[in-house]
Amino acid sequence: MGSALSYHSRSRNITIIQNKISQEQRCLPVVVAVCNTETQINTGKYTHLSDALLLKIFSYFTIEDLMRISRVCQQWRRVGLDPSLWRSVDLSSCAHARIRDRTVICLVSRVTSSAITYIDLSGSGCSRLTNVSLFHIARQCHKLRKLCVCNRNRITSTGIEMVARHCPYLEVLRMSKCPLILSRGLGFVLRRSKLLRELDVSGCLWVTDAVLAEIGQLCVCLVYLSIEGCKKVTDNGIVNLANSCTTIKHINLRNTKRISNAGMEQFLTKLPDLEGLEIGLVRKGRGTAAVLNLVATHCKNLTFFDYQECLPTPVDDVLCQIAEQCQRLRFMGVRYQYQTLSNNLVLTLTKLCPSLVRIDASLRFYI
């Protein structure tokens, strides 16, 4: 009975390898070698696959697949725990698995944790994770550079503070829609993480003008900032941010209802080298064409521009002006709630801006 279960487990994992390699279409000899392995599994003669070849095959697998294949045999377990495969621990794709704290603890304890530089715990299968996971990550992964804990309702400021205390190389922190992480926890992170380059606090209702002032003073290397849905931010907040943090290259200002046209103009004037801008005009009296004219006038170095509007407003001429002025623009997203862009307008935009490679004019709405 035990041998039958073992054989079933091995054949199932080898089938995974065949599917992965056929999808990637990387190397035909590798596929042939794996297929031959399945025919020899009855006799147990599949050890002719070298560690280097297995490592190449395993490099195409997800974290979920690596956890499965490590149960096949000792060789696969040894190769599957190679540090080069675990630099990035992305659990966001594990939608159907119920990942708990003990799963994360097992991962960071068995793998050479010093090799882990990126951890993503934002998947729907990670909804039960708590501060316990962050405590073990902080103690084991001292070279961590990127951490994503978006939409986690059980992680608090204490867990984030522990990560900031033990991970001095943290560069990217994404914690959007985390209701239990408050300004106290963010302030501790900002004071500890001097190398922070990307920060996402979208949907955090505690983000105010004072928090933005603290971000501008402490984040001297900040390049990307997302404050989407932070409804307490006003004109003073973004203007002070632009004055104190001139390194920002990309900012997300969608659904910030208290920012006026005057505040937007001051902000764009102080950051002429802005390369990415995401805005969403959700109030009727905001003056759609006026704001887009400001973008065309002050943001000539844009490479990424995303704009959305609740009400269908005729701004075709202004969009053409943006495409003509921003010659480095590569992505333009223009979304209305009730209509899409015409084909003639899309063709005109591509002619005016030769560098434009993608236009997203879908009806998808972020707010």
From TrEMBL:
<keyword id="KW-0833">Ubl conjugation pathway</keyword>
<protein>
    <submittedName>
        <fullName>F-box/LRR-repeat protein 2</fullName>
    </submittedName>
</protein>
<feature type="domain" description="F-box">
    <location>
        <begin position="43"/>
        <end position="89"/>
    </location>
</feature>
<dbReference type="InterPro" id="IPR001810">
    <property type="entry name" value="F-box_dom"/>
</dbReference>
<dbReference type="Pfam" id="PF12937">
    <property type="entry name" value="F-box-like"/>
</dbReference>
<dbReference type="Pfam" id="PF25372">
    <property type="entry name" value="DUF7885"/>
</dbReference>
<dbReference type="InterPro" id="IPR050648">
    <property type="entry name" value="F-box_LRR-repeat"/>
</dbReference>
<dbReference type="InterPro" id="IPR036047">
    <property type="entry name" value="F-box-like_dom_sf"/>
</dbReference>
<dbReference type="GO" id="GO:0005737">
    <property type="term" value="C:cytoplasm"/>
</dbReference>
<dbReference type="InterPro" id="IPR006553">
    <property type="entry name" value="Leu-rich_rpt_Cys-con_subtyp"/>
</dbReference>
<dbReference type="InterPro" id="IPR057207">
    <property type="entry name" value="FBXL15_LRR"/>
</dbReference>
<dbReference type="InterPro" id="IPR032675">
    <property type="entry name" value="LRR_dom_sf"/>
</dbReference>
